[in-house]
Design goal:
disordered N terminus, 9 strands, alpha+beta, 3-stranded antiparallel sheet, Actin, Chain A, domain 4, about 40% helix, transmembrane helix, membrane, about 325 residues, Heat Shock Protein 90, 6-stranded mixed sheet, 8 helices, transmembrane, 3 domains, RsiV family protein
């Protein structure tokens, strides 16, 4: 926080050195003041679940980040010199980003593919020149390399399957791979790799990659809970409850739970079950098509309320 405050002051000084007009300077001050007021109000209302997405982010980032975000809204539109000055000052954390590593396209009368291979990149550590910061940055780079290797292995295999299948003159096939940044907070970064393949019928499956930005390591489900806590049972019981409630409310919702084929029924998640953390710091458990429901149900996700895990989260 001290670094953010110091950087904010340096940024404001640079703006003034560029000789901003009085009107531009007044707009900036008003935006910063407004952000601080909103942040203060958000802190007092933290217990309410209806807080908007924008306020949730501001509350976690703190007053300094909110003020800097307000400056980002107004200042680049007032002066090219100011925009350039801002690009030289790392006020907001942009450590982890995603770029397109490979873009594979193919289309003929029977086959089509649109495969965009993402790559996680790590920016140089400019926030602090400390041993801990440097170690986290290096660990983040290693984690990013591991994730990129996994993604490239998956997409290389899919491209090879597509190339082999299109040699067959019979039938049609379509393959799509894309990615989505699900959540970026001051502590976590999550990338979702979405894969879709059809040849008569279609199937979708997803992969989730979450980096703990405080350690630089790949986040595991067990990392979120106190040692010795039975978080697998707690989460699984809540998922079963949500399944029952959804099926009771909508006859079109079908989950494999207490069915005539118990070998298919959902019993429990494992430490390898996919998950991510949303912007409200809630655990979201993810299943692929066919895992816990008919494939027509798509890829179900279950948001586990924070109050359910309050006694066992770290």
């Amino acid at each position: 926080m001290e670094n953010r405050e110091k950087q904010l002051q340096e940024l404001k000084k640079e703006y003034q050195d560029i000789h901003m007009s009085e009107e531009q300077l007044l707009q900036m001050k008003q935006k910063i003041s407004q952000a601080k007021q909103e942040n203060s109000q958000q802190g007092s209302n933290a217990a309410h679940s209806s807080v908007s997405h924008r306020r949730s982010i501001a509350r976690r980032c703190g007053i300094a980040a909110a003020a800097a975000a307000a400056a980002l809204v107004i200042l680049p539109n007032t002066s090219a010199s100011v925009a350039y000055a801002m690009s030289q000052v790392p006020v907001l954390s942009r450590l982890v980003e995603v770029v397109t590593f490979r873009d594979y396209h193919y289309e003929d009368d029977r086959n089509s593919a649109d495969i965009q291979v993402p790559e996680v990149t790590v920016a140089p550590d400019t926030d602090a020149d400390t041993q801990k910061s440097s170690a986290v940055s290096e660990q983040t780079k290693k984690t990013a390399e591991e994730i990129n290797t996994e993604i490239q292995t998956i997409t290389d295999r899919l491209i090879a399957e597509f190339e082999e299948s299109k040699k067959n003159e019979e039938g049609y096939q379509n393959m799509t791979v894309k990615s989505e940044i699900l959540a970026t907070t001051d502590q976590y970064f999550t990338l979702k790799l979405i894969c879709f393949q059809s040849a008569g019928s279609g199937a979708e499956w997803n992969y989730y990659y979450t980096i703990d930005l405080s350690t630089g390591k790949r986040l595991q489900l067990a990392d979120l809970f106190q040692e010795g806590s039975d978080y697998l049972t707690t989460i699984s019981d809540n998922i079963k409850q949500q399944m029952k409630e959804q099926m009771a409310a909508d006859e079109n919702k079908i989950y494999w739970l207490d069915s005539d084929m118990p070998e298919w029924d959902f019993t429990s998640i494992t430490d390898n079950t996919s998950f991510y953390l949303n912007q409200n710091n809630e655990v979201v458990v993810c299943f692929n098509e066919g895992d816990v429901a008919p494939m027509s149900m798509g890829c179900p996700e279950f948001v586990i309320p924070n109050e359910v895990l309050a006694g066992i989260r770290k």
